[in-house]
């Protein structure tokens, strides 16, 4: 498990995403602080990278902390205001120990990372990152306070999550998996056909769920030019983005899509079309979780 209590503004770089995908591919859960700018988490890196668990901060009353980033990209929340933390005056060698109170999503993320560690210790066999995330969300408690903008599934519930992986609660691995394509694909300027990036799914049974998560990271200097579609194996088209956003840069968004009529197995495609002149970009990465 990796905890990243760090961040900044911008989009998820290829370097960041490749590192995250490599860690997740080796079975490592990546927990990330959402950021402290009171803005949509889609503008905070690495919390806006696919395949991470983005954590918002709450107050002691269970409301979103005023500084915490928010949005549909938040996975879960945890206490992050007036958190007592250990200190040490030493620089190169141990010094005097003390305590201090801090605020920030950097304090919230370790709460979730700690729950993940407890889950792995309690589980009969190592949990996949997808199983960890689904269990954290399914066992989370609703925020007793308010959360304008979105705080994910709720407040992390250590007891509920550990009980679940011990077999006393929701199935810790309901079969949810995340599939990712991180290969860059250039998007031609003013082109009606567009380009596609493909993810092949096999070895699954049944249909996709009604709440499939499609995370899209497209680098482009004018997203109002773009039409972005998810194309199912049978050719059905699901529009994710249709020329909105004006002159804003980049799409870094997770979409919830009802795919219950679609079989899981087959080739899923993300198609991007640029329908105006001058500005260009590329598909950086995308993933589908179901």
Q: What brief labels describe this structure?
A:
globular, alpha+beta, 4-stranded parallel sheet, 290 residues
Model description:
The protein has 4 helices and 17 strands. By secondary structure, the protein is an alpha+beta fold. Strands 9, 10, 12, 15 and 17 form a 5-stranded antiparallel β-sheet that branches. A 4-stranded parallel β-sheet has the order 1-3-5-6. A 4-stranded antiparallel β-sheet has the order 11-16-13-14, with no helix packed on it. The longest helix has 18 residues, at 105-122. The two termini are 22 Å apart.
Strand content: 25-35%
Q: How many beta strands in the DSSP annotation? A: 17
Helix content: 10-25%
Instruction: Sum up the overall morphology in one term.
Output: globular
**Largest pleated sheet:** 5 strands, antiparallel
The ordered string of helix (H) and strand (E) elements is EEHEEEEEEHHHEEEEEEEEE
Q: Measured on Cα atoms, how large is the radius of gyration?
A: 20 Å
Low-confidence blocks of residues: none
Kindly name the structural category. Answer: alpha+beta
The N- to C-terminal Cα distance equals: 22 Å
Total helices: the number is 4
> What value does the average pLDDT take?
92
């Amino acid at each position: 498990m990796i905890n990243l209590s760090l961040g900044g503004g911008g989009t998820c770089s290829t370097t960041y995403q490749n590192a995250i995908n490599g860690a997740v591919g080796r079975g490592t859960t990546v927990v990330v602080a959402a950021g402290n700018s009171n803005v949509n988490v889609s503008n905070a890196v690495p919390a806006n990278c696919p395949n991470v668990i983005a954590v918002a901060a709450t107050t002691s009353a269970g409301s979103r902390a005023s500084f915490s980033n928010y949005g549909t990209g938040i996975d879960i929340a945890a206490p992050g205001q007036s958190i007592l933390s250990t200190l040490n005056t030493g620089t190169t060698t141990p010094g005097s120990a003390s305590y201090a109170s801090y605020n920030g999503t950097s304090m919230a993320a370790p709460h979730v990372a700690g729950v993940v560690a407890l889950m792995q210790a309690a589980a009969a066999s190592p949990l996949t990152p997808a199983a960890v995330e689904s269990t954290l969300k399914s066992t989370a408690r609703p925020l007793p306070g308010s959360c304008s903008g979105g705080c994910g599934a709720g407040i992390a519930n250590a007891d509920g999550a550990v009980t679940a992986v011990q077999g006393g609660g929701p199935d810790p691995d309901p079969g949810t998996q995340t599939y990712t394509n991180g290969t860059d694909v250039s998007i031609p300027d003013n082109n009606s056909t567009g380009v596609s990036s493909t993810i092949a799914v096999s070895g699954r049974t049944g249909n996709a769920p009604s709440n499939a998560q499609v995370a899209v990271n497209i680098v482009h200097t004018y997203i109002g030019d773009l039409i972005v579609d998810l194309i199912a194996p049978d050719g059905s088209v699901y529009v994710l983005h249709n020329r909105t956003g004006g002159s804003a840069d980049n799409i870094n968004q997770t979409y919830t899509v009802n795919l219950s009529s679609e079989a899981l197995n087959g080739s899923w495609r993300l198609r991007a079309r640029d329908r105006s002149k001058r500005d260009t970009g590329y598909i950086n990465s995308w993933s589908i979780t179901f």
